[in-house]
Amino acid sequence: MIKKLRAILTRRDKQFLLFLLGFSIIISIIETVGISIIMPFIAIATDFTLVESNEYYKYVYEFLNFSEPKDFVIAFGVVLIFFYIFRSGINLLYFYLLNRFSQGRYHLIAYRLFENYMGMSYKNFVKKNSSTLTKSIVNEAANLTGLIQNLLFMMSEVFIIIFLYGMMLYVNYKITLLLTVILIINAIFLTKTVSTRIKKAGALRADIQGRFYEIINKSFGNFKLLKLRGDDQKLLGEFGEVSMGYAQANIRASTLQQFPRLFLEAIGFGLIAFIVTYLVWKYEGNISGALSIISMFVLALYRLLPSVNRIMTAYNGIMFNYKALDIVHNDLMYDSEKLGSRPIEFKDTITLSNISFEYEENKPVLKDISLSIKKGSKIAFVGESGSGKSTLVDLIIGLYKPIHGSISIDDTTLCDETIKAWRSKVGYIPQSVYLFDGTVADNVVFGREYDEAKVIESLRQANIYSFLEQKEGIETKVGEGGVMLSGGQKQRIAIARALYGDPELLVLDEATSALDNDTESKIMDEIYKVSFDKTLIIIAHRLSTIDRCEEVYKLMDGKFLNE
């Protein structure tokens, strides 16, 4: 666990952890002093003669020039009052720093997960379930934060127990050793039974929560279809089963987490009764002389038992959230694309030389493809579904890397140093356009630097700006998934989005296949018009879509067929 946490936390985090470790030692010393100082105060408050008979009390008494033992005791009490106020304040500061650190890690972990997912290669990303990635960022990062917080709480309480234990050994080692044996036996019992069940509940929680997100995503993503079918009982049944399972995992864990506190309280009060009984037996009925020892042990146990309980609770919290550490650690270990920023020029030709590609080993999708695409040309790839058309285009635009062969832009081979610059020259219009719930302008810009004039120009080129002027212009809301627009309007927004980056290569991946013939014809007229000075690659099924292309390449089983 520590090794995985070290891999996740930054160097600055580790330095702050060392600071918190030192701070927790200071807190532990203060807590121990707070318990141990009660014993001498009670002793001199019940017997003033100790002020002059005890050499330590006498030294302080004379050094501060007290005239009466009563004044000394009162001053002692006042000092204790201010000490306990200081103790509370310093504890509050410590817990603030501890919580600031642990909760602040949520930002770090969530950001690093999102960064890693964004840096994931396209080939790895398409193998992932988006609901699982969302769960990791939203829930598992928060659960890992809880694990870190519990670990820090354990760390602070352990030092308190060590110092209190040392003090109790000094006062009466026989009673302390007996208490130690009893507490160790109980701790082993709790970790072997309760903690194990809590860890299993945590693993179950992580699994069920993944299904939870999956059902929600597929339901909202197919809401229209579900409404048309009018039969959502099976889906509601699935959701109810998962939701109940998630609730039961949390109920089981929350109930079991209370068990150590109740169990230890019963043991603790029993131990206090045992100490008093033992001292009555030892002193044959009169225990007034042992009052200070009893007070010290009662107070020590009163402080010790909550520490033991917090350690057990924190440990069980770690067990419940342990799966989150595995998930986050594994997801952060994915190799992100390490792309350079070397510029690349496209003035003449895209050259594919003996390209082969496969998603799974020994199952080739493309086999020994060679092709030259002249700048400014209009070409199309056609073929049956699964023939490799989209994969070939994804290779050309730099989303995939060939298993064998090479791709060159003019005389520059595409590699990690140049592929980022090449991708920036590509405008991509997919078959399924995703518009997020925002304005038209937001969807066109989509994370790039905002330029209102460029937005309007892109919308004009896509032949949709006149329609938007009848509404709220570029501030027109599109709804989630573009639900407030027609299919043709969504495609035009997608065209504007592609044109906003002023691409040199424009790619249509079956972008008009879902449209009616008239709408498709109008959009293709607009695409050919705006791409007159650009290289255009089209993936299509309909011949009408590609009737103005200069070259048409047909693929079958990963190879070109002769036209």
Structure description:
This protein has 2 domains: 2-202 and 257-332, Up-down Bundle (ABC transporter transmembrane region fold), CATH 1.20.1560.10; 349-561, P-loop containing nucleotide triphosphate hydrolases (Rossmann fold, 3-Layer(aba) Sandwich), CATH 3.40.50.300. The relative contact order is 0.08. The protein has 19 helices and 10 strands. The protein has helices spanning 2-8, 11-36, 38-46, 50-53, 55-63, 69-119, 122-125, 130-171, 173-221, 223-229, 233-282, 291-332, 389-396, 419-423, 440-445, 452-461, 465-469, 487-500, 517-530; strands at residues 349-360, 363-374, 378-383, 404-409, 412-413, 426-429, 505-509, 535-539, 551-556, 559-561. Helices cover 64% and strands 11% of the residues. The strands form 2 sheets. It has a 6-stranded mixed sheet with strand order 6-7-8-3-9-10. It is of the alpha/beta class. Helix 6 runs antiparallel to helix 8 (130-171) and helix 11 (233-282) runs antiparallel to helix 12 (291-332). The mean pLDDT is 80.
Q: How much helix, percentage-wise, in residues? A: 55-70%
CATH level 1 class label of the largest domain: Mainly Alpha
User: Whole-number radius of gyration?
Assistant: 36 Å
Put simply, the count of helices is: 19
Coarse structural class: alpha/beta
At a glance:
The chain is an alpha/beta fold and 563 residues long. It has 19 helices and 10 strands. A 6-stranded mixed sheet has the order 6-7-8-3-9-10. The protein has a 4-stranded antiparallel sheet with strand order 2-1-4-5, with helices on one face.
